[in-house]
Amino acid sequence: MNTASVPPLHDIDLKHWRLFKAVVECGGLSAAEEATGMGISAISRQLSDLESRFGSQLCHRGRSGFQLTEEGQVAYTAVLRLLDSIDEFRDTLASSKAEVKGDLSLWLIDHCAFTPSNPIATALQHFRRDYPLVNLSIGVAPPDAVERAVAEKKAGVGVTICKSDLPSLSYQVIGSEASALYCGRDHEAFGKSAAEARRIVEQTAHYVRRGYLVQDTAPASFLQNANTLAHHVEGTVQLLLSGGFVGIVPDHIAQPWVDRGALFRLPLQEFIVERPVFAIVREPQGSSRTAGLMLEAIVRSFREAAA
């Protein structure tokens, strides 16, 4: 794309570029319908208008699926920088008026109501009360995807159990998540003692690997023979309920099923793990004012819940 041929940027172009960003992050036109509130034909028409105006094909779309072109990838990266700059501009002006405005995307891991007090909901309540002019969007994804979303500027703030120590990110421990090994009611190990459960698990259990973690912490012997993979906690739970598998699930997610007699927490200490929960933002120089304020609200709510 020759910069000399790129026309001046107008308001309508910003609208189209925001749509382009949404389509990329949703993974295609159909998936973007709900996120944008537009029909697929309207999305396609606006993308075509954008490509025509800027003289470049940004993506391949059709029966073969959605894929960015080389110029589309360059454009997407540039759009992220552009929208970040707009948010920074808004922050600067809002600061001079003691107002907080702009857009903020918060990404959370699945089932993030870690305690009955639900500090995430409390943080959102306080943030909306204090900063009503911020346009807030919420995303839910597996732990590793939340971390990537913040690193790739798809999200301003993330809450996750994944910590890859990416140099562009700042991690703050806000709580913890306890997990254990569970099985379903129809599994042979259901209700068994520790000794009997260990024998069954070691000899016959089919373990569900957790594809949403950078590294599954289960014993190596389990991982070597495990041929079933779940990319979400919900997937693990459904496999356990089928009666043919064992898998590690956070206690707060498993408890309602335990109360119904559908899941059993195997009494095996080696599988009981407590992982830290992190609130993550980009390093201060890359983080917006709104992201910093949301981080403060989340940290404060978790501290109050733990008090």
UniProtKB/TrEMBL annotation:
Could you tell me the keywords of this UniProt record? DNA-binding, Transcription, Transcription regulation
Cross-referenced PROSITE patterns: HTH_LYSR (PS50931)
User: Residue limits of the HTH lysR-type domain?
Assistant: 12-69
The organism's place on the tree of life at top rank: Bacteria
One annotated GO molecular function: DNA-binding transcription factor activity
**Xref: InterPro entries:** LysR_HTH_N (IPR000847), LysR_subst-bd (IPR005119), WH-like_DNA-bd_sf (IPR036388), WH_DNA-bd_sf (IPR036390)
Q: Which CDD domains match?
A: PBP2_LTTR_substrate (cd05466)
| Assigned protein family | Belongs to the LysR transcriptional regulatory family.
Listed name of the protein: LysR family transcriptional regulator
Organism lineage string: Bacteria, Pseudomonadati, Pseudomonadota, Gammaproteobacteria, Pseudomonadales
